[in-house]
Structures are given as C-alpha cells and as structure tokens.
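Translate sequence into structure tokens.
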Amino acid sequence: MRALFALLAAGVGLALLLLVDGLRGRPERRRAPRAARRAGLGLAVVRLAGVVGVAAVVGAVTRWPVAALLAGVAVYALPAVIGPDRAQKRNLARVEAIAAWAENLSGTLRSAAGLEQTIVETAAVAPAEIRDELATLAAAPRAGIRLPQALRTFAEELADPTADLVANVLLQAAEHEARDISGSLSGVGRSARRQASARLRIATGRVRIRTSVRIIVTVVLGSAVGLVMFARDFLQPYDSPFGQVVLAVIGAGFAGCLLWMVRMGRIPDLPRILTNPGGPATADTTPRPSMRRETIS
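Result follows.
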C-alpha cells in the first residue's frame, strides 16, 4: 500500500512538473547537432528519473503527497538555483568574443579589404564562442543571400546587445556606404570590453547572494530531513488534510522567496537595437559580383 501511494504521488508530481514546463514556453532555438541532442536527451532522462525516484522515496517515507510533490520540484529546480551560474559565464565569454571580433574587423578593414572579404577572413579566426554564427554569416554571400539580410539573421541568432552594435555598423556600411567603419568598429570593441568588465564586477559582487541562497537551502532541507528522521511526532499535525494544505502553503512561500533571491542575483542584459530581423534570409537572384573589393576607410 505504501509503495502504491508513493508511485501515485510521484506520478502526480511528474505530471505537474511537465505541465508547468509546457505552459512556461521556451524561446525558439536553432537545431542542435545530433550528438548534442543525444546528450541533452540523456541528461533529461536522468533528470526525470531523479525527480520520480526522489518523489517516490519521500512519498513512501512521509505518506504526504504534498511532500512528494515538493521533493520532485526541488530535484528539478535546485540544481539550476544553487549550482554554478554557467549561463552568466557564457554571456561574459560571448561579449568578450564579440569585442575581439570587432577589433579584428577594424584592423582587417584598415588593410583595404572589402567588407565581405573582411567578414570571411575574420570568421576563419573567430573566437569559439561565436565561430558557428560567423561561419554561417561568411557563407551567406556565396549562397546568394544579400549581406544586409545575412547580418540581420546573424544578429538574431546571437540575440546579444553587443552583437547588435557590431551588426548595425556593418549594416550601415553594406546599405549606405558609410565611412570610417574601421573607427566605429574599434569604438564598439572598446565599448564591449568595458561592458564585459562591468558585468564581471557586478557578477562578482552578486556571488554573495547565490552563496546566501545555498546556505538557506541547505539549512532548510537539512532541518526537514532531520525532523522527519528523528522527530516525527513533531510533524504529526501534517498527517491531516488540513496539515497538507498548510505544508503546500509553506512550500509555495519558500519557493517564492527563493525565486525572488535568485532574480536578485541575475544581471539584466542591455536592450537590443536590432529586434526585427526582417524575416528569414532569402536568396538574392539578381546578378552580383562574388566579392566586393572596394576600399572602405
């Protein structure tokens, strides 16, 4: 009977997690390579197995469906809350990569290379964080896609404010034959360097918030496990239906406070300036030379 109750509680918790994840929605992403998709699928299976297993164990030990649900939610969400902030590190690395690319563009343009040729040459030695997007951008003219449309698609793929600045300078050169592109790109590179340094200082200061979150979560979970194991009589009021309602309210309040603290530790991005890519890239059927050799200075 206890095993059946545990499985039912775990099933309810898993169903609610999937429902919340589906309603939350996710931004559209480019199709990942097959190896990456397989690794992501394996990680998702392990994660769901951990959610179901922990929810089943907690439900069997406590006989509280709310406790099983809260345990499943904790296993699903806490790794992202108390773990290392990998997303912030990736963002910082990408900003620095864009800055390096902008500086490389500036130096290459000074050597009297055309704009398309400059993009091709700098894409070959681009930082790893933006290499795939730059390879797509460099291949676009050879595929018959006009450079302005390729630049807008490139900015949309990166979805980064700093990348928008670089793409906007290149758009001005491609569409309006703007002058002093090299100087503008150099300025964008310096601005990106300063932005990365500022974000790094902010992230270092907000590490204390994530540390506080880890301490709070550890103390609360440790106290809950200790009470269940060594002071079960103290938790007897939660055996009733009303006690389960109270436990659900307490769990929801704790989750809300935790979410608030996590948001305090996040660094918001600057607003983007290229938010309308103009639709998908399309091939240009008009005759055009394969490379522009004019000097842009």
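Note: The two ends are 80 Å apart (CA to CA).
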